[in-house]
From TrEMBL, chains A, B:
<keyword id="KW-0805">Transcription regulation</keyword>
<feature type="region of interest" description="Disordered">
    <location>
        <begin position="1"/>
        <end position="20"/>
    </location>
</feature>
<dbReference type="Pfam" id="PF00532">
    <property type="entry name" value="Peripla_BP_1"/>
</dbReference>
<dbReference type="InterPro" id="IPR001761">
    <property type="entry name" value="Peripla_BP/Lac1_sug-bd_dom"/>
</dbReference>
<dbReference type="InterPro" id="IPR000843">
    <property type="entry name" value="HTH_LacI"/>
</dbReference>
<dbReference type="InterPro" id="IPR028082">
    <property type="entry name" value="Peripla_BP_I"/>
</dbReference>
<keyword id="KW-0804">Transcription</keyword>
<keyword id="KW-0238">DNA-binding</keyword>
<protein>
    <submittedName>
        <fullName>LacI family transcriptional regulator</fullName>
    </submittedName>
</protein>
<dbReference type="InterPro" id="IPR010982">
    <property type="entry name" value="Lambda_DNA-bd_dom_sf"/>
</dbReference>
<dbReference type="Pfam" id="PF00356">
    <property type="entry name" value="LacI"/>
</dbReference>
<feature type="domain" description="HTH lacI-type">
    <location>
        <begin position="21"/>
        <end position="75"/>
    </location>
</feature>
Length: 360, 360
DNA sequence: TTGTAAGCGTTATCAG
DNA sequence: CTGATAACGCTTACAA
């Protein structure tokens, strides 16, 4: 069945597929209307098998690939989800991203990653760009914006904030992470191992989770009847350099302590180096505990005892959560529990003589 | 100057900005035509100051944000650049991404990150998605596709491949990284320090750079008159686990060696742990050298001697390169040189008695 | 089941 | 300098 008079002679080498073929050309080549091609593309209606075949053949021959922009504009759906991270290159966020990405592909969404570099203005700017891109939902990894502002942005697309507790609603929700309990468990472990003087290198006080971790440390101490001693706390910045400097200050000040609990693993890396430089052995002289369980922490020398965040799992939860929100399904987000991973940077020590510690 | 009869009474609380305002509404509110609004938005023509002001005021009041999709469809420009990475969560790629992202914002492009998980089919799929999104250019971090396939994809948008040497043209170019020289330098350093039996833990043989690193190691050995000994080479996989296993095999086989050169830092982390488990001291018993200089390598215990890749800089080069290609400007990409960073996992040893080594 | 035609929200070409 | 008006490439009623 031939179409027109010279239809076949006209395009001798059409399989060379010009860079950007359009739906209309496929329709023409297959001898059907544009709508039919569209239907086949979207499976939105049944089409006669022969036309189906003709269209598919044309698509393959021309190497046709629908223009996502046009498609989204026409349909009103972009099938994209914005993922705002504070720093793409942070080893910590990397795992979250992986969990998010993997779980997003299945329901058919494409993540668009942007990063705000721990900067509030950047955070706003990136968020607006995502909205301008008409993402259908947004996952924020540690937003700095306050709740009212988030709610305002959430009017455009549902948002899920990781590591934050919010008044959850259909458009804005937070997936809190139980940092306090994690820090308390880690500190308790140290106490159970006989440590009484435990130093702490804190994270930036502007971070909610850093504060929670400090609180967990303090509470464990108080619960054990040891009491919080501000003299054992040094300020870090969640980075290796900060941990190194803080540990140096701590050692220079010479308070007595047998263990150091760091607000995150990167801080612990820095502290570890400071001790190595001074010839302080871990864990023989000082026990060390981190927080996060970064992939490399189990390869430290010795392997680091730390609080594990199920990062990949958190990513999955976030991805599933935002998809449900987009689908207007209600979701319930319970705080993610963290678990202590006991490795080799902590050791039991004999408690110094008697003290007021209670049994059990 | 009033517009219509009840224009003002009609919208009492329009500043509540409905989720998605469109250009047309701004035009109406400002009393101008859509084209004028568009002109102001793009600065594509001069407009009377008063209209300019009226429009800007309306934009602010309605909190209007142009629809990127519509804009791109109409203009044919998306101002996006696809960045295909093998693994978003790899600590190695993270730094490249940062360099790329930072240098892309300035020329006004937005990166779209996707990852192919070291899988060829995924690589193709992600690339097609990027093309369907009409990105204006693509940066690939270690493509697995062969050159003809890359060239085919490059017909849609210019592509720049990091870590690969290609026949550079206007649409497809590679930014090679001098892995061979880096590996040779590292091996030479070990030789200069007196080591003669140097083991090597290789990367996956499917990776071009892994092969180059092995070659560099071999060449340095041969140049020094030591000769390559396959018995000193173990297979790794660029991951910590592979390094750990390889080192264990190596130690179990008991060939004599005083140093181990690992194809990348992650491998070295694994090897380090294997040695720690066996009580083998670094560098007193065995010297260790890595490759890449990941951010945490300088915080290892002891800090790792390794070959530094100027990752952030490479990211910059890539970003600038792809932008130039998009602008049809010619670019010249010279191989990126790597430098050895001598830290504390290597030590000088007394060469065992005499040997055929030449002076100098 | 299939085709026609009217958008989707902007930009861009032309007159004026 | 500004306003109609026609694209941009696809989806989607509405008819047939």
């Amino acid at each position: 069945m031939t179409d027109g008079p010279n239809e076949n002679r006209d395009a001798p080498k059409e399989d060379i597929s010009s860079p950007n073929v359009k739906l209309e050309e496929i329709a023409r080549a297959a001898g059907v209307s544009p709508s039919t091609v569209s239907r086949i593309l979207n499976g939105s209606a049944r089409v006669l098998p022969e036309k189906q075949r003709a269209v598919e053949e044309a698509i393959a021959r021309f190497n046709y690939r629908p223009n996502v922009l046009a498609r989204s504009l026409a349909s009103g759906r972009t099938a994209t989800i914005g993922v705002l991270t504070q720093a793409v290159s942070s080893p910590f966020y990397a795992e979250w991203l992986r969990g998010i990405e993997e779980s997003l592909y299945e329901p058919g969404f494409t993540p668009i990653f942007v990063s705000s570099r721990w900067n509030l203005d950047d955070e706003k700017a990136r968020l607006e760009e995502l909205i301008a891109r008409r993402v259908e939902g947004v996952i924020l990894l540690h937003a700095q914006l306050d709740e009212p502002s988030l709610a305002e942005y959430a009017r455009h697309a549902p948002m899920l904030v990781l590591g934050r507790s919010l008044h959850n609603g259909p458009a804005l929700a937070g997936l809190p992470i139980d940092n306090l309990k994690g820090a308390r468990d880690a500190t308790r472990h140290l106490i159970e191992e006989g440590h009484r003087e435990i130093a702490f290198i804190a994270g930036p006080s502007s971070h909610e989770d850093a504060i929670e971790r400090l609180d967990g440390y303090r509470i464990a101490l108080e619960e054990a009847g040891i009491g919080f001693d501000a003299g054992l706390v040094e300020q870090g910045d969640y980075l290796e350099t900060g941990g190194l400097a803080a540990m140096e200050r701590l050692m220079a000040r010479r308070p007595t302590f047998s263990a150091v609990f760091c607000a995150n693993d990167q801080t612990a890396y820095g502290a570890r180096l400071a001790m190595f430089r001074r010839g302080v052995r871990v864990p023989e002289d000082i026990s060390l505990v981190g927080f996060d369980d970064l992939p490399t922490s189990s390869y430290m020398t010795p392997p680091l005892t730390t609080v594990r965040q199920p990062t990949f799992e958190i990513g999955r939860l976030a991805a599933q959560g935002i998809v449900q929100m987009i689908r207007k399904q209600s979701i319930s987000l319970s705080p993610v529990p963290l678990t202590l991973v006991t490795r080799e940077t902590t050791r039991r020590i004999a408690p110094p003589a008697s003290s007021g510690a209670q049994p059990g």
